[in-house]
């Protein structure tokens, strides 16, 4: 196996480089050829990774979080080239799909060396200008996208607690936003919804923000996307809802509704959506599923 190992360009002088080098050494010990790829920016890293794939890479490994994985999946989706994960990020939600979560270079590299893979779906975002981009975990719009924005701007703390603090701060200005939604449901029928929402979330995977199960029943290999909608209520009432969100039991609350869809169009003025933890575009956006687009090294059975 010839591996292109992408190290998070934002962590070259910090948490990403050390784990990448350790992972490379361990993969080489398993008899693999490994080249570390890390540009000075996301664009440069993309260019270098693309060149490595075109040259001879038969697998791609990412030492980083969901944002760096997001970059890599744009290049490997639909190619059959398997993607491995060394979880070094803040959230690591796609790593959880692969049976990984915390940084454990030995477990992560041994998972890759074992060669067990499974094919999972990706979600495709189409912007108003016709441009498209894929994501693997969750798209957030509304309250949770503002939480992402605040969490990304914070320098401390690291890890999932950053999102917890950002959630509490954003609660101080919590408000509903007028949304219009056009959904293609799992059975092929269409549904149109409009009204104020606190948030509209589209999940290919179950979790975001380092393990928050916002779409608790999502299956990234079922050919569908899960939608979680939250209607406005008093701040205190929604604050009491938070513990249920962390347990994944919020979908039975009156203010929360869910749908399982093939595609959805989201529209709301002044709302920027986040996917895989990074901004992906201003609404309106259309999101549809791309079945079995990504081959993932996994600790689980395929």
From TrEMBL:
Span of domain DAGKc: 1-129
Listed InterPro entries: ATP-NAD_kinase_N, Diacylglycerol_kinase_cat_dom, Lipid_Phosphate_FormReg, NAD/diacylglycerol_kinase_sf, YegS/DAGK_C
Enzyme class: transferase
Pfam families (UniProt xref): DAGK_cat, YegS_C
Record bears the keyword Zinc: no
SUPFAM superfamilies with a match to the protein in the record: NAD kinase/diacylglycerol kinase-like
EC number: 2.7.1.107
Keywords: ATP-binding, Kinase, Lipid biosynthesis, Lipid metabolism, Nucleotide-binding, Phospholipid biosynthesis, Phospholipid metabolism, Transferase
Swiss-Prot/TrEMBL cofactor(s): Mg(2+)
Alphabetized GO MF terms: ATP-dependent diacylglycerol kinase activity
Source domain of life: Bacteria
Family matches, as NCBIfam families: PRK11914.1
Family: Belongs to the diacylglycerol/lipid kinase family.
Protein name per its UniProtKB record: Diacylglycerol kinase
